[in-house]
Specification:
Number of domains: 3
Largest sheet: 8 strands, mixed
Oligomer: single chain
Strand content: 15-25%
Helix content: 25-40%
Mean pLDDT: 95
Radius of gyration: 24 Å
Shape: globular
């Protein structure tokens, strides 16, 4: 069925009193928009479903949410009565339609005979991940688009291990969804939500469960009391999301006395009026935090995204201005603080392990190894990073920390997703600890550079929207693979067998910015114990390396560049040359 047939079917089926009807009729005047919205069904990406809210099979609306939930209900029912009785926990963020979609999902699951737990208001994503394991549910659903712009919403799905669903489970769920008709098989009515609560088929969670999560976060503390300067001035913004209440409670219970929340971003706002793009990774999200920070003399600015799983910081620099840290730099501070603190306290285990993504800086590996801790790698996404925890435990390792460069950090082995609340607590604690010693986090970061070498990092991306954009991204990846120095590609491709030593001499990617390419890892068919993924990673003769991959949730092709030199200026210069050369070559692909 092509997009025109899909569009006509929805036009025939959606009643005139449905709010989506007007949008549907407007699409008759915009063929390209109609094609975009009806070209395909939504599919699971890195973190479930995500898209613009509105009418269409490729958008977030009651019909796509209803179909997805009914498919998941069938998947759980196929697992048997025990899985159904264990049930599903549902949470949501402050976005447009998040509460409605969460109520719809709860009603569909409850009517299918599956036990449902949910919340009377929004909750952080990491609290949901935590409670899946605590409650022993078989699954979890969070209605959130994380850090995306306000027109987006999403649908994150978790399994019984507390991680986002694996590719195998996601495929099984998608199989169940694909067998369903949006209109004949799916009910989009959630008017019986209160009745299902009264009947005991939907259970509301509350203070007891909030307490479990907060206590788990607080248990991660490394230093306490007199070891910390708890009067350190700190600014925090939840970016109008779910972090406001739990973060404030946690900091107060830890004894911090000088924490200030950005008033304009304290309460829920689905339009994110003061920020627009609520991504703490973007320094523009800190504009109001910087203003408040200067007013109170804050050493540290912290932000979480609307569902409180992402976390980023800015530090007061030597010139009195705030310096935004990228996810790698915050990771360096956390890796070092956790390991230094555990070593000094005598609690660093012999077989300590950490996990980072394959596109995250290798400086954290050097830091970990200097403390005798092994750094494992995983594909991007915390279903992969935290998915390593069972393997580590089964092989005698003690998990200490996991993170990736996109401002995601997981410090607790029982909370198997990135957690901005616990990351914020640990960074605040680290700042208070070093302040007691007369140092700032900015100075500690400089010390790490002096000790291990200065790394430059860059993460540009090319945004290519729509169907033409997706097709061009595929052509870009195909072009890179078609021009690799095959004698240096791992795993060794079959096409390389029998290749002469000089056969790669004229490959486009034989060198980059005048630097010989020593090795390329192509994860397309997996590498060592890392599963298959559409990622390429290049290692150059001077120790620099870079990676390229399409985004799993956004219309982007993403790049990651890393260079290490003996001064920050040299590292930046080298990294920029490599970055410019790569982007110029790939952008030439039409």
């Amino acid at each position: 069925m092509d997009y025109k047939e899909r569009y006509k079917l929805w036009l025939d089926k959606i009643p005139g009193n449905d709010p989506l009807r007007a949008q549907l009729e407007q699409l008759a005047l915009d063929e390209s928009a109609a094609a975009e919205r009806f070209s395909q069904d939504m599919v699971f990406g890195t973190a479930g479903l995500r898209g613009v809210t509105g009418v269409g099979t490729n958008c977030m609306n009651v019909y796509t949410v209803g179909r997805a939930t009914r498919g998941i209900a069938n998947y759980i029912r196929n697992a048997g009565p025990e899985a159904m009785s264990r049930g599903v926990i549902i949470a949501h963020d402050p976005r447009h339609f998040s509460e409605e979609f969460s109520r719809l999902a709860a009603c569909i699951l409850a009517r299918a005979g599956i036990r449902v737990y949910t919340f009377p208001g929004m909750r952080p994503t990491p609290e949901l991940a935590c409670l899946i394991r605590v409650k022993g549910t078989v699954s979890g659903i969070n209605i959130t688009a994380s850090h995306n712009p306000p027109e987006y919403n999403g649908y994150k799905v978790y399994w019984e291990d507390g991680c986002q669903v694996s590719a195998e489970i996601a495929d099984g769920m998608m199989q169940c969804m694909s067998q369903l008709d949006y209109f004949k098989d799916c009910d989009v009515d959630y008017s019986d939500y209160e009745n299902l609560i009264a009947a005991g088929k939907i259970t509301l969670l509350g203070e007891e469960e909030d307490r479990i999560y907060l206590d788990m976060v607080k248990a991660l503390a490394i230093h306490e009391g007199d070891e910390l300067d708890l009067s350190i001035p700190i600014v925090y913004t939840p970016l109008n999301g779910a972090g406001s209440i739990p973060f404030s409670r946690m900091m107060a219970e830890r004894g911090f006395t000088n924490v200030h929340i950005v008033e304009e971003q304290k309460d829920p706002d689905p339009d994110f009026t003061t920020v627009g793009y609520p991504n703490p990774e973007d320094p523009k999200a800190f504009r109001l935090s910087e203003k408040l920070g200067h007013e109170i003399g804050a050493d540290l600015l912290m932000a979480t995204d609307p569902d409180s799983d992402r976390f980023a910081i800015e530090l007061m620099g030597d010139d009195g201005e705030y310096v935004p840290l990228n996810g790698n730099q915050t990771g360096y501070l956390l890796v070092n603080y956790i390991l230094e603190g555990r070593r000094d306290a005598g609690t660093l285990p012999e077989n300590g392990a950490m996990v980072k993504s394959i596109v995250t800086s290798t400086l954290s590996t050097e830091i970990a190894e200097s403390y005798g801790v092994k750094m494992f790698e995983a594909l991007t996404g915390f279903k992969n990073i935290c998915g390593r925890i069972p393997f580590l435990e089964e092989n005698g390792y003690s998990y200490l920390f996991g993170y990736e460069e996109s401002v995601g950090y997981a410090a607790c082995p029982e909370i198997r997703d990135k957690d901005g609340i616990s990351a914020g607590m640990l960074v605040a604690e680290a700042a208070a600890y070093y302040r007691k010693q007369g140092k700032t986090l900015f100075q500690v970061l400089s010390e790490l550079g002096a000790r291990y070498g200065y790394y430059a990092e860059a993460e540009p991306n090319l945004v290519l929207k729509g169907i033409p954009g997706a097709q061009r991204i595929r052509r870009m990846m195909d072009s890179v693979r078609a021009n690799l120095p095959m004698d240096r590609v791992l795993p060794v491709p079959e096409a390389a067998s029998g290749q002469g030593e000089n056969d790669s001499a004229f490959a486009v990617w034989d060198s980059v910015a005048g630097l010989h390419v020593k090795k390329v890892i192509d994860y397309q068919n997996g590498y060592e114990d890392i599963p298959a993924s559409n990622v390429l990673r290049f290692f150059l003769e001077n120790g620099s390396w870079f990676a390229v991959r399409p985004s799993g949730t956004e219309p982007k092709i993403k790049f990651y560049f890393y260079s290490k030199q003996d001064t920050p200026e040299k590292a930046e210069e080298v990294n920029k040359k490599i970055c410019d050369a790569v982007l110029q070559t790939i952008s030439a692909v039409e």
